[in-house]
Design a protein that fits this description.
It contains seven helices and ten strands. The protein is of the alpha+beta class. Helix 1 packs antiparallel against helix 2.
């Protein structure tokens, strides 16, 4: 049997207006990357003030394994911070339907699972820090630490069996290297069409399981998860997967909204704690899941 993995350490913050009068909201579709980038910059400044070495700032905070700006980018693996903006999940309408809204919170975590002291440091060091907009250089938000039992944060960290994306998963590789989609547009028989669609689904399924494993979850969890994917979101309020802003270096890869149900090796449901964030954009908050159900 698969044991419920230990919950990941996180530091959560609310995003307030610079005068701390109320929440500062950011559009999820267009601003997830920008909010994550501003948080990364604020963390690097805090680490510099705290006396972190240039190497540790480059590797753990910025995710750069290279030592010189002119060198080709060298990935550092999972031992680095992930900056994950959290879209609010709000009850709306007469039926109190749960809808994905704007970003008003953010958390810092690591997919390395051994960085509790650094994440605790971030909670202390970033309290009261400002997020600075990249082009205007103006303060656009103030960071205020919040507990993980915050109602919205709980959607992203509590143990749950079923999870669905609030931002799309960017596949960690090409889902159609053999150009099946191009062949599907040609005049082919129904049997050949079915065969190509099956092979395409198999390829996407394999890449999603690879992404789960890359995000620090065990191979058993990745192999036994029940997966469903599509371009349309599973949460009300989410946009089509292709409308989200993604980093240029991975924009060539397909992206999908995904529903995931964790199962053990006996195919029985199992609860797993979040955050669940997978795929090529996981360090920026893309491929983020929220727990289904109450």
């Amino acid at each position: 049997l698969i044991a419920d993995p230990q919950p990941r350490e996180v530091s959560a913050f609310s995003l307030l207006k610079p005068d701390a009068s109320s929440y500062r909201a950011f559009d999820t579709t267009r601003m997830t990357l920008e909010v994550s980038g501003m948080m990364r910059h604020a963390t690097s400044l805090a680490a510099r003030d705290a006396g972190w070495s240039r190497f540790d700032i480059n590797a753990f905070i910025l995710g750069h394994g290279e030592t010189d700006n002119g060198e080709k980018h060298i990935p550092v693996g999972p031992r680095r911070f992930a900056y994950i903006p959290l879209p609010s999940i709000e009850s709306r309408g007469e039926n109190n339907a749960r809808v994905v809204g704007s970003i008003r919170r953010i958390l810092i975590t690591s997919f390395g699972n051994t960085e509790e002291s650094k994440i605790s440091w971030a909670r202390r060091a970033l309290s009261g820090h400002e997020l600075i907009e990249r082009t205007s250089k103006e303060s656009v938000a103030l960071l205020s630490p919040i507990p993980t039992n915050d109602k919205v944060v709980q959607y992203y960290v509590k143990p749950a069996t079923s999870w669905s994306t609030v931002t799309p998963v960017i596949l960690p590789g090409y889902d159609d290297p053999a150009h099946f989609r191009r062949r599907l547009k040609q005049d082919i028989c129904a049997e050949e069409q079915k065969r190509l669609l099956t092979r395409l689904d198999h390829r996407i399924d394999g890449l999603l399981r690879k992404a789960i494993n890359q995000a620090g979850f065990s191979k058993d969890l990745a192999d036994n998860a029940v997966l469903e994917w599509r371009k349309v979101g599973f949460w009300a309020g989410s946009e089509l997967a292709d409308r989200y802003h993604v980093p240029k270096h991975i924009e060539r890869f397909s992206r999908y909204h995904v529903r995931l149900q964790w199962h053990d090796v006996n195919k029985k449901p199992i609860k797993v704690s979040g955050p669940v964030c997978i795929g090529g954009g996981r360090f920026y908050g893309l491929g983020l899941f929220a727990a289904d159900g109450e």
